[in-house]
Amino acid sequence: MRRAICPGSFDPLHNGHVEIIARATGLFDEVIVAVSHNPAKNYRFAVEERISIVEQTFSGLSGIIVKPMTGGLLAQFAREQGANAIVKGLRNVADYEYEVPMAAMNRHLSSVETVFLTADSQYTPLSSSLIKEVQSLGGDISEFVPRAVLRAFNGSDA
């Protein structure tokens, strides 16, 4: 079985993430969406909320499993999950320059390859930070995020 890990904080999940994860399902039998949590970071949504958002978004697509990844190395998590690959989306050259050294280290630590998928051009400007900023200032983010994210923002206090 070909199994991949698509890691991220997904705070919040946006359509660029959705596109990469959906494309990964065409390349692998199983895609584990690893929702990460770093206690040193401040998140808009708790890890449980982010997991729920990802599960709701992909409920109609088979082959996707959503799991928390709290602490530890991605390479170790990938090995524990029996993954053949880590899938990362690239929006631009800066993403590439950031991700390549990590891919090399992950391969060294776990023998798990990283597969890079280039983002569709309509999603290259998207980032979770930008989505949160636009939303916090009253901007309309509805064309950039799945419905589950809109519901989460509308149901919360901020």
Automatic annotation (TrEMBL):
Species whose genome carries this gene: Micrococcoides hystricis
Main location: cytoplasm
Enzyme Commission no: 2.7.7.3
Name of the gene: coaD
Entry-linked PANTHER family: PHOSPHOPANTETHEINE ADENYLYLTRANSFERASE (PTHR21342:SF1)
Record localization: Cytoplasm
Keywords, in A-Z order: ATP-binding, Coenzyme A biosynthesis, Cytoplasm, Magnesium, Nucleotide-binding, Nucleotidyltransferase, Transferase
Gene3D superfamilies registered for this protein in UniProt: HUPs
Membrane-spanning intervals of the chain: none
This protein's name: Phosphopantetheine adenylyltransferase
Residues engaged in binding substrate: 9, 41, 74, 88
Reactions this protein catalyses: (R)-4'-phosphopantetheine + ATP + H(+) = 3'-dephospho-CoA + diphosphate
